[in-house]
Amino acid sequence: MSLSFGYMFIILPCKADYLLPLRSIINDHFNIMHTLLRYMILPLLVGILIFVGTCLIGPGSVPEMSDEISWDKLAHFGLFFLLSAVSLYDYDKLHNGAPPIGKWIFWGVLLPVIYGGIIELLQMYVFTTRSAEWGDWIADIAGSLVALLLAFIYLRKRRKSIKTISL
After folding, report:
1. Which of 66, 49, 73 is nearest to 131 (CA)?
2. How far apart are the two ends of the chain, measured CA to CA in Å?
């Protein structure tokens, strides 16, 4: 009895040939999760920064700026430019420089624009110390679109430089 117990719980698991398919599946899932986390962490951090800055920080905490420039709109533009830029960049890197254009635009532009709209709705209905404005959302959209435009310009230049190199 002790021989079969030892074989079953000590020797057999040490051989683990029958575990190779399971080990492969676990490694594949770990690699997928590692890759997704690597390419999602920066957009996620920027998204959290935007949420904290636009929903959790009260208007009294923001220093007064001159009236010549709409600092609020400039901040919205800059933050959503940053969010779209890092999302576009990371999605491009995730697909080794050849992302599917539709999905690339969805993840890099459309999703941040929807996020900006949700934040404005949250400011209107949940975080009532903040004010929801159409101008803020338009600034969010403009920031995302400028990031997309610059990304297209960058991709076009990158593709031209690759084509001109000949060996």
Report:
1. 73
2. 71
Burial 112-149 (b: 16+ CB within 10 A, else e): bbebbeebbebbeeebeebebeeebbebbbbbbeebbe
Query: What is the DSSP annotation of 87-121?
Result: HHHHHHHHTTT---HHHHHIIIIIHHHHHHHHHHH
Domain boundaries, the chain: 77-152
Q: Please, which residues have CB within 8 angstroms of residue 88's CB and are 6 or more apart in sequence?
A: 104, 107, 108, 109, 147, 148, 151
CA distance 100 to 26: 27
**What is the residue-level pLDDT of the chain in tens, covering all 167 positions?**
455 554 444 554 555 555 555 556 656 656 666 666 677 788 888 888 888 888 777 666 555 656 666 788 898 999 999 999 999 998 888 888 888 999 999 999 999 999 999 999 998 998 878 788 999 999 999 999 999 999 999 888 887 776 665 55
d(CA 52, CA 62): 12
Rg (CA), the chain: 24
